[in-house]
Amino acid sequence: MALNTLVVDDSSVMRTIIIKTLRLAGLPLGDIWEAKNGEEGLHVLQENWVDLAMIDIHMPVMDGEEMLTRIRANDQYKSLPVIVISSESDPGKIEKMLGLGATFIHKPFTPEVLKDIIVEVTGVSNENED
Amino acid sequence: MKTKIERVLEEATIKTFEDICFMYLEPELREKQKDLKPDAAAEVGFHGGYTGTLVIESRGDLFSAVAVNILSDDRPSVQQKKDALGEIANIICGNIVPSLGRRKAGGYKIESPRHLSRDELLKEEKRKPLAAVMLNFNQGRADIKLFVDDYISDKEIKD
């Protein structure tokens, strides 16, 4: 199974870092879409088949919390695996994202950490492994 | 002797450079790199229990190397170099602010990174940081300074 992945972050550099790390993790990747805020991210979800969403918290126009709330309110995507990647330090905010069914990764992160969490939340196996 | 905040700042910076830029410390370059002049700087502001800024200055070839390593692009544009340095500052800042203490509901709000001009950097150099670390890499040097308004340490609070 190739993972179609949506990466939502207002920083183009951070999106590049995440995509590069995804590739380094050696996971089977399908299409990768990028969005720079929650609103754009929801639009990508409407138009495409996405297996995994990786989203930031602090973004202009629509932040990660609102995007995640809308995802969970929609029958079509309510079980979509979502990983929140942020340098957020507020335990209350992190708890809120976890309560909405997301998994949290704190920046900075290694390809190994990212891979383990993706395997855990999607059940995908690493096709490159012997 | 380093303060607790300086130790946390150093650890956060080393981990960020290792995990994000795949760049590793070279402490033996200390003498060789001590006179390098800054060629770029980025600043990230934060508000919460305390208000302040984190400034990162790059020296030597670090400004280019950070972008080259992050973006896997041998010829990044100047804007990409600025964005990459800013992102590093942003991540380090997110990791250091919880160590300042004085928790406030809502945690810390970290602003978007901003590139500093030479004049702005000269002004920053006149201010006294709460913590500063200087780290040597093969590709150049990173100086990170943490400025916090009206900081009161835990020790002072206890006293």
Secondary structure layout plus pairing:
The complex is a heterodimer of chains A (130) and B (159).
Chain A: E1 3-8, H1 12-24, E2 29-35, H2 38-47, E3 52-55, H3 64-73, E4 82-86, H4 91-99, E5 103-106, H5 111-122
Helix pairs in contact in A: 2-3
Chain B: H1 4-21, E1 38-47, E2 51-60, H2 62-71, H3 78-96, E3 109-110, E4 114-115, H4 118-125, E5 131-137, E6 140-148, H5 154-158
Antiparallel strand pairs in B: 1-2, 1-3, 1-4, 2-6, 5-6
3D structure, described in words:
The complex is a heterodimer of chains A (130) and B (159). Chain A has helices at residues 12-24, 38-47, 64-73, 91-99, 111-122; strands at residues 3-8, 29-35, 52-55, 82-86, 103-106. By secondary structure, chain A is an alpha/beta fold. Chain A has a single domain, classed as Rossmann fold (3-Layer(aba) Sandwich). The longest helix of chain A has 13 residues, at 12-24. Chain B has a single domain (4-158), classed as CheC-like (Chemotaxis protein chec). Chain B has five helices and six strands. In chain B, strands 1, 2, 3, 4, 5 and 6 form a six-stranded antiparallel beta sheet that branches. In chain B, a hairpin with a 2-residue loop joins strand 5 (131-137) and strand 6 (140-148). In chain B, helix 2 crosses helix 3. The chains are: A alpha/beta (130), B alpha+beta (159). Chains A and B meet through helix 1 and helix 4 of A and helix 1, helix 3 and strand 3 of B.
